[in-house]
Amino acid sequence: MSLDDAYERRREIGRRVARWRARRGLNRRQFADLCDRSLSWVDKVESGERGLLRLPMLERVAEVLHVSVETLTDTTEVRQARHCLDLFEISAIRATLQSYQAISRVFVPPPTELTEPPGLDRLARQVTYAWTVFQNAHWPLLGQALPRLLTTAQVAIATYPGADDEARRARTLLSQAYQVTASTLWKLNEADLAWLAAERGLVLAEETGDSLLISDAARRVTQGLMVMGHYDQALELVRADIERLEPGRGTGSSAYLSLYGMLFLMGAVVVARASNHAAARDLLDEGHSVARQLGYDGNECFTAFGPTNVHLHQVAVLLDLGDGAGAVSAARHVTSDGLNRL
After folding, report:
1. Neighbouring C-beta atoms of residue 276, cutoff 10 Å
2. Which backbone phi and psi does 158 adopt, to 5 degrees?
3. What is the pTM of this model?
4. CA distance 166 to 162
5. Which of the residues 4, 77, 274, 279 has the least number of beta carbons within 10 Å of its own beta carbon?
6. 136: which residues sit within 8 A by CB, 6+ positions away?
7. Quick count: other Cβ atoms within 10 Å of Cβ 156?
């Protein structure tokens, strides 16, 4: 290996160390202390001026960052790790969900031990950020954001007790935080944690009395029932929510129509997994009808509901039903403009 190649190799490993340090939420001083090294050593390693030449030191850095040595040195491992949540981040989400403070309104830190009470406007922005990151599939960013979001939202519940507007808003935001957590964990096949988050999201939504929030939270539970193969229960819950919301369809807001329409799409996926062709097509037809009433591709309540999403679900449902030709035909209705609007 030439000197130039060796230097470039050191720089690349240094960049990886810097990325993982930031991903773990460590500043340079904290990282230096954990490695039992100086701040200037960190600067030299991350800039490529100094290489991690000895295996014991490379192993120590990897241990501090909670990654494997290969994650810092192997190109294939690096690519995979940069686009996925890792075990350390999932463990952090697990620890937050399984904390007793997440379920108790009695055994919480006294006010003197709490940091400054969380502002609900700022918390709302954090929830929006988490949903935006989720929809863009930036999983490592979610891994960093979700434990902090859940902790902050749980503190908000303790900070704003009672039944006034602030208390209801705090419960709404925690329900939404649990929902985005559940959706993320379903994607990662972490079924036990996802169910826990979905269940808590629905309980909190029902406490608020917000009809649309309840529907949104129930959809996460439906997703869980489907993932676990409980198709009958999943369909029963979807149909119950459709029946509950149906009377308001004629005068419903765009958010109302989006959540109502997503129920038909979720129901179509459920019955397709159970190989019920007729029911799947009926539910898709209803979804198309609601999308036409809405009239545009939107993202109300982070549903991405609209004509394009209905067509995408139609493709997925037909593939689940084994109708490849129908799926190809349905895909022709999906336009690049529609996808760009999602």
Report:
1. 17
2. -70, -30
3. 0.83
4. 9
5. 4
6. none
7. 22
Report residue 193 as tokens.
């944690």
- Please give the Cα distance from 316 to 324 (Å, whole number): 10
Going by C-beta distance under 8 Å and a sequence separation of 6 or more, which residues neighbour residue 297? 304, 306, 307, 308, 309, 338, 341, 342
Q: Which pLDDT score is estimated for 246?
A: 96
Taking the C-alpha atoms of residue 280 and residue 263, their distance in angstroms, rounded to an integer, is: 12
More confident: 321 or 73: 321
Q: Please, how many CA atoms are within 13 Å of residue 51, restricted to the half-sphere of its CB?
A: 13
Delineate the domains of the chain, giving CATH numbers in brackets.
1-82 (1.10.260.40), 84-209 (no CATH), 226-342 (no CATH)
Phi, psi of 14 (to 5 degrees): -60, -40
Nearest CA to 309 out of 253, 256, 269 is that of: 269
Give me the mean pLDDT over the 120-143 stretch. 93
Handedness of CA 196, 200, 201, 206 (dihedral sign): positive
For residue 224, give Cα distances in angstroms to 27, 153, 198, 270, 333: 38, 23, 8, 11, 29
Query: In this structure, are residues 102 and 157 in contact, taking their beta carbons and an 8 Å threshold?
Result: no
